[in-house]
Inverse folding.
């Protein structure tokens, strides 16, 4: 009953008026981010970290961290709701995890059932959000209790596993993903070494003593990278937007989608817990599952309501599920959770086993706020879906320069340094060209976030073993993590060599 | 996937890896109370990066050059204008203040994206730059470079 007790405490935190506002603003912006073409959840969250930091500036540290993370998580799962809107109305997914929704969502819209499709997507997302939260509540405590028993060597290997999980499946080339991971870890070594106090790779530049700021890099590669992509590739849609008439689904619609929603939620949730697999893959799997067990699979692709309900539920459940390894183990499994983790660290909150002990109000406040946020999203999305649909028409002419301006404002407000602004622009350009050539950005950012922790654990472990590296394979738990990490990288490679098709995770 | 890009990138990462390895030679190899120093992590990672970039370089000989995608050409002109404007914006932010620099950047940005509609461009740029400044500085008590002193305010 302990979890229930803590959850009540979490609700007390989440129901504070400022946190209700933060949750509301978060899910609202998230929906907008999901609807607007050109910015996805990861760039939305990155863009808002500095803005949130300035909003919460007046609060005590613990409250500021709670409110900020409530808002940012709201953006994350809110964007998952919003992503369906453009898929259904415009035949263009707002973010990668809504790619499958296009298959049946747009045909439904052409049949004049756009409103129903949007409503089912919202209901499915809501159910999925609740399912994954219940899982979060019950798994969080036991998982973090196990994680508390880990030694430095075990923790080092666990983080290596996290890095391999995200690299092994990200992008088209494992080599490139690994290069980005290692490069991110190397960037993290710039600055003052926090064990010995020695300056590393700073070239006597005072700006570099505190290291490269995670925030600057994340906003640069994700938000500006996306903006540059939109400008360079003239990535604007000029398609016809489908009309929305009826919104409320009929009893028949609900009956047909109940099963897909439940199955999609479960598929998504378990997919989400596994680091590196992500929401896009979850929605694909849920769609394939529905098609396989359906009595009339020929309907899929022609406007089957199950083809909207299942993937939309799955991608939301996956984003909830991805919070579990982040909060309990400190291992972000997706690009967006890596960015969220960076935000937490910015507030001096270390996600991981100790989070539930040291900052219960943050951990449980966040979980409780996700219940509230999902409810807000359902209420927002059902009647207001027409209003959000209007947002699709926002001219990129105004949107693109404003995103640049918000990035500059955000980074300057937090860092107050022109050096960081220039670094931000460089990251944007480099990020665009690397991402365009299949160098995934999420492992880079994850390496940057995990770098200091991995190094600390490595050195703590090596210090106890007098520099003997065999400590990592002598400890059984550490050995198991390392073996899984190696398998994670090699199994897809071997399968590829044998000519099997390997599904890769395209999302950040 | 571009073969040429991957080749240049692999060479670049090779150089970066080597730089980190050489650079870590100047960092002390031990720390107080421990024989594991701050150099070990960058040294190991740098070596790993060298190996990986060699691997990528080798891979570029194996895969076939994909046929050029027949999409529209990249719009470098607009991109460069926005990029240079953003760079000037960043460099001038402290000199001419947040409101003026943001206003100018947005105006240039809007007009670069699509010419015309001057009135709405001016109104939106002005509204955004004043709005953000007012909200952040007056409501949230943050600090941003104000209007330049030579304007007489």
């Amino acid at each position: 009953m302990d979890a229930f007790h803590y959850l009540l405490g979490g609700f007390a935190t989440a129901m504070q008026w400022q946190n209700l506002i933060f949750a509301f603003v978060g899910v609202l912006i998230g929906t907008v981010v999901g609807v607007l073409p050109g910015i996805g959840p990861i760039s939305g969250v990155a863009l808002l970290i500095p803005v949130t930091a300035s909003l919460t500036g007046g609060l005590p540290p613990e409250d500021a961290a709670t409110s900020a993370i409530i808002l940012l998580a709201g953006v994350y799962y809110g964007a998952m709701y919003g992503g369906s809107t453009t898929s259904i109305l415009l035949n263009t997914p707002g973010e990668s995890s809504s790619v499958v929704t296009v298959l049946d969502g747009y045909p439904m819209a052409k049949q004049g059932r756009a409103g129903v499709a949007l409503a089912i997507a919202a209901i499915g997302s809501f159910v999925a959000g609740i399912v994954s939260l219940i899982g979060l509540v019950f798994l969080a405590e036991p998982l973090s209790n196990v994680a508390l028993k880990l030694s430095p060597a075990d923790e080092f290997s666990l983080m290596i596993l996290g890095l391999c999980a995200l690299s092994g499946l990200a992008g088209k080339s494992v080599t490139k993903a690994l290069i980005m991971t290692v490069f991110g870890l190397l960037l993290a070594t710039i600055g003052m070494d926090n064990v010995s106090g020695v300056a590393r790779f700073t070239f006597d530049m005072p700006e570099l003593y505190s290291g490269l700021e995670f925030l600057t890099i994340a906003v640069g590669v994700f938000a500006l990278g996306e903006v540059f992509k939109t400008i360079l590739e003239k990535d604007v849609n000029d398609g016809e937007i489908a009309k929305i008439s009826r919104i409320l689904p009929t009893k028949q619609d609900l009956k047909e989608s109940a099963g897909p929603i439940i199955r999609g939620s479960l598929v998504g949730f378990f997919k989400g817990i596994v680091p590196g697999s992500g929401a896009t893959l979850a929605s694909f799997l849920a769609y394939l599952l529905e098609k396989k067990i359906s009595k009339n699979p020929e309907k899929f692709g022609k406007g089957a309501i199950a083809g909207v309900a299942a993937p939309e539920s799955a991608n939301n459940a996956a984003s909830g599920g991805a919070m579990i390894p982040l909060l309990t183990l400190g291992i972000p499994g997706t690009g967006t959770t890596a960015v969220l983790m960076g935000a937490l660290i910015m507030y001096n909150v270390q996600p991981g086993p100790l989070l539930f002990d040291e900052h219960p109000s943050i951990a449980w406040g966040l979980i409780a706020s996700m219940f509230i946020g999902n409810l807000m999203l359902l209420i927002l999305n059902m009647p207001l879906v027409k209003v959000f649909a209007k947002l699709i028409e926002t001219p990129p002419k105004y949107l693109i320069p404003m995103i640049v301006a918000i990035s500059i404002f955000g980074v300057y407000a937090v860092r107050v340094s022109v050096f960081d602004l220039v670094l931000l622009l460089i990251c944007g350009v480099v990020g665009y060209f690397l991402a365009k050539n299949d160098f995934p950005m999420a492992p880079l950012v994850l390496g940057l976030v995990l770098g200091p922790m991995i190094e600390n654990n490595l050195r703590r472990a090596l210090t106890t073993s007098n520099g003997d590296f065999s400590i990592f394979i002598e400890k059984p738990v550490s050995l198991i993590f390392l073996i899984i990490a190696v398998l994670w990288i090699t199994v897809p490679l071997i399968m590829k060599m044998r000519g099997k098709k390997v599904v890769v995770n395209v999302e950040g | 996937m571009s073969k040429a890009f991957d080749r240049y990138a692999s060479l670049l990462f090779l150089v970066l890896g080597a730089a980190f390895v050489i650079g870590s030679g100047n960092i002390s190899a031990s720390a107080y109370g421990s024989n594991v120093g701050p150099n070990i992590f960058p040294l190991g990672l740098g070596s790993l990066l060298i190996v990986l970039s060699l691997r990528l370089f080798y891979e570029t000989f194996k895969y076939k050059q994909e046929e050029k995608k027949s999409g529209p050409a990249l719009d470098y002109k607009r991109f460069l204008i926005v990029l240079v404007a953003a760079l000037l914006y960043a460099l001038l932010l402290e000199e001419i203040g947040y409101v003026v620099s943001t206003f100018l950047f947005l105006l240039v940005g809007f007009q670069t994206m699509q010419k015309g509609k001057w009135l709405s461009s001016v109104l939106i740029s002005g509204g955004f730059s004043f709005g953000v400044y007012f909200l952040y500085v007056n409501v949230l008590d943050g600090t941003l470079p104000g209007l330049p002193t030579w304007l007489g305010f």
Notes: Chain B has five helices and no strands. Chain B touches chain A through 70 residues (CB under 8 Å).
